[in-house]
C-alpha cells in the first residue's frame, strides 16, 4: 500500500510538471450584471433574433493550449460544438438597448478560468460603431476593474457590406472579429498556464482572429431601417470625432480601417490599440 501511494504521488508530480494535470480550484462566482446594461431591453434594432459567435479554429486551439475553461452567463449559451467553439445570445426587442446613438447594450457574458482557478469575467457588454467593436467592464478574481475595455474589434465597412438574409432573419453574416490590445493585456494579467504547453505571453495577441459573428434579426424591415439609421449615426459620430483626432494621441477610428471580404472569408484586420 505504501509503495502504491509513493508511486501515485510521483506520477502526479511528474504529470503536474509536464502540464498534463489541469486540476482547477473553485472558480469565482459570476459577477453581478453591469449596472449600465438593462436586463430586458429598451430601444431595439428589431423584434427578436439571435447572434452567434463562432470561434476561429486557431482560437479554439489557443483555449485548449492554455488549459482554459469557458462558461457562459445567461442569456448567453454555448454552441452545440462546446463552450470552446463559440456561443450564442438573443438579440432584438427583448435584449437590445440603445443607451446612446453609439452604444447598444446586451445582458449576459462569459468567464474564462485558468487551470489554477484564476478567472476573468464580464456580465453585460455593449457594441459601438466608432470604433467598431464590443466593450465591457471586466472582473478579475472577483474584483471589478476600472473603466470600460475594448475587447473585440470589427470593421464597420465589412459589417455593412455583409448585411444579408440568412438564418431566417436579416443581418451581418460572417463578420470577422479580432482580439484587441485590451483583451490581450486582460488575459495576460491573470491567466497562468501549466508548464510544458509551449505558450508564452502575450497568450492572445492584438489583431489575432477570434472568429466570426452572424446576426439574424427576425424583422427584416426594422433591421434594414435600423442599419440605415446606424450608418447615419456613424457619420454623425465620425464627424464629431474628426475635430478631436490628433489631440488625444489615440485613434478615434480604430476598428474602422478594415476592408470587407467575400462572405465566409475574414476581412482585413482593423487597427488595434
TrEMBL record:
Low complexity bias (residue ranges)? 232-261
So which residues are the signal peptide here?
Answer: 1-25
Kindly state which keywords UniProt assigns to this record, in alphabetical order: Signal
Region Disordered: start-end pairs: 232-273
The domain of life is Bacteria
Its name, as the record gives it, is Collagen-like protein
**What is the scientific name of the source organism?**
Actinomadura barringtoniae
Amino acid at each position: 500500500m505504501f509503495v502504491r501511494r509513493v508511486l501515485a504521488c510521483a506520477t502526479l508530480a511528474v504529470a503536474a510538471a509536464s502540464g498534463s494535470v489541469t486540476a482547477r480550484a473553485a472558480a469565482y462566482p459570476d459577477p453581478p450584471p453591469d449596472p449600465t446594461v438593462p436586463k430586458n431591453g429598451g430601444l431595439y434594432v428589431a423584434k427578436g433574433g439571435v447572434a452567434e459567435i463562432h470561434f476561429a479554429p486557431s482560437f479554439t486551439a489557443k483555449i485548449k493550449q492554455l488549459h482554459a475553461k469557458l462558461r457562459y452567463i445567461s442569456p448567453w449559451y454555448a454552441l452545440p460544438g462546446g463552450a470552446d467553439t463559440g456561443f450564442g445570445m438573443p438579440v432584438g426587442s427583448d435584449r437590445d438597448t440603445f443607451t446612446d446613438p453609439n452604444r447598444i447594450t446586451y445582458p449576459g457574458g462569459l468567464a474564462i478560468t485558468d487551470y489554477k482557478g484564476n478567472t476573468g469575467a464580464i456580465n453585460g457588454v455593449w457594441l459601438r460603431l466608432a470604433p467598431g467593436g464590443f466593450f465591457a467592464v471586466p472582473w478579475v478574481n472577483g474584483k471589478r476593474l476600472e473603466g470600460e475595455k475594448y475587447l473585440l474589434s470589427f470593421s464597420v465597412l465589412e459589417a455593412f457590406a455583409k448585411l444579408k438574409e440568412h438564418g431566417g432573419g436579416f443581418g451581418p453574416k460572417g463578420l470577422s472579429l479580432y482580439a484587441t490590445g485590451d483583451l490581450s493585456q486582460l488575459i495576460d494579467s491573470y491567466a497562468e498556464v501549466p508548464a510544458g504547453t509551449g505558450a508564452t505571453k502575450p497568450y492572445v495577441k492584438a489583431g489575432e482572429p477570434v472568429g466570426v459573428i452572424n446576426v439574424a434579426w427576425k424583422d427584416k424591415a426594422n433591421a434594414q431601417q435600423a442599419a440605415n439609421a446606424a450608418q447615419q449615426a456613424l457619420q454623425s459620430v465620425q464627424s464629431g470625432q474628426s475635430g478631436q483626432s490628433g489631440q488625444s494621441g489615440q485613434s478615434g477610428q480604430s476598428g474602422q480601417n478594415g476592408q470587407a471580404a467575400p462572405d465566409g472569408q475574414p476581412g482585413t484586420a482593423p487597427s488595434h490599440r
